[in-house]
Structure formats: C-alpha cells, structure tokens
Amino acid sequence: MSENNIIEEFKSTEPQKKQKDVLTGHTYDGIKEYDNPLPGWWLYLFYITIAWSVVYMFYYHFTNLGPSSADEYVMEIQKANESKAGMGIATTAFNFDDVKITNDPAALNEAKDIFVKNCVSCHAQGGAGAIGPNLTDDYWIHGGSPANIAKVIYQGVPEKGMISWKNIISNEQIVKLVSYIKSLRGTNPPNAKAPQGNLEAEN
Ligand code: HEC
Predict the structure, then answer these.
(1) Which residue lies with its CA nearest to atom 7 of ligand 1?
(2) pLDDT of residue 64
(3) What predicted TM-score, i.e. pTM, was given to this entire model?
(4) N or C: which end of the chain has fewer CB within 10 A?
C-alpha cells in the first residue's frame, strides 16, 4: 500500500457498504476473504490511542511527572494509615510487655467509659462477669498480669466469644482498659460471677 493510499484511507468518511468490495483472492474451502479498508473514523481513533499510549507511558512510567501505579498504591496505603491513626485505631504492633499500669483518674475514667460502652454487655457492670468471666477476682483464664490482660483484649479469644478489639480500640486505650480492670480487683460487685480459671497471687 503506497503512502498516498494510506492518507486517502485516513480521510475516507464514505460508509463502508458504499465502498466497492475487494477480494484478497484467497479461498479456503470455498470461503473468500474481503480486503476492504477499515473505516476512516475507526482508524483515526486507533492511531489516536497509539499516540496517547506513548504520551501516557512517558508521563506516568518513564518520568517522574505523574505517579505510576506503584506510586499510587504507596500513596493510598499511606493515606489509609493516616486516616486510621486519626480514628485512634492501632496501626502498630502491641508490645504487651510494655504495658504500664496507670492510676491517673482521667485515664481510668476514660477506660471506664470504654468498658461501659463495649464490655459490660458480657462482663457486666464493674466487671462482675456474665457471659464473660468475672474481672474483679483473683482467678484468670488467660493470666492476670497486665501483659496477659492486654493480650486477651488485643487478640481476643474468638472461639470463646471474646472478640479481638485491636481494630476497634487503640493500643493506648487498651493500656488504660488494663489499668481499669486491674483497679477492679477485690471490689466484690453484687451478683459477681463464680471464679473461672486459675487462682493467681497478686504481683
Ligand atoms: C461478646 C461478649 C464479650 C464482650 C463484648 C467482651 N468480652 Fe471479654 N471475654 C468474653 C468471654 C466469653 C471471655 C472468656 C474467654 C475464654 O473463656 O477463654 C472473655 C475474656 C476476657 C478477659 C480474660 C479474662 C480471664 O479470666 O483471663 C478479659 C481481660 C476481657 N475479656 C476483657 C474484655 C474487655 C476489656 C472488653 C471490652 C473492650 C471485653 N472483654 C468485651 C466475652 C466478651
């Protein structure tokens, strides 16, 4: 096909059915093949996409002008982490051995609010125990050290009905909850649930 022909074809806006059918001359089992040109509008679009892809590759992949898919991924992860941090949700691993009990009344009050909102449905007011165990006695199923209590709250015991709170309550708030639970020891709330687990001497 000569260069002139291509240009002519480009400009052709004539509907295809009005064009004269051209045969390739190939015959396969009696089936003949047309050699009609593609419609001009179709070809234009096709060449525009090729030109566009070059610009696109250059802009997004070969230069730093626009973000590549990998850059966009990193940016979105970063954004999600930031918004998670804004909601006070744990994005970092919990170092259970670092849990330090606080006696700060503001922290204990905040923890009490969290406990009332999220925990009393199973552990009852004041941690007396209902579906979940009594949290005021010296008996612990999973250990009564601050690290163990934090671990149970963070990881949960899903198969026993205690969910993991790590995506709902921040690490910092879990530390306060542990302090609050520790402060309940020996409070003898009314209707306290019978002890479960092992007796542990207070450390
Ligand atoms: C849907 C019910 C439910 C809710 C809500 C719930 N728990 Fe529990 N929790 C349980 C059950 C059941 C267990 C006992 C798990 C087992 O038998 O291993 C448990 C165990 C625990 C233990 C370990 C007790 C032990 O003896 O070792 C702690 C600590 C605890 N929960 C704290 C909390 C805190 C804090 C919250 C609120 C943020 C909470 N739980 C919310 C059901 C619940």
Answers:
(1) 162
(2) 82
(3) 0.65
(4) C
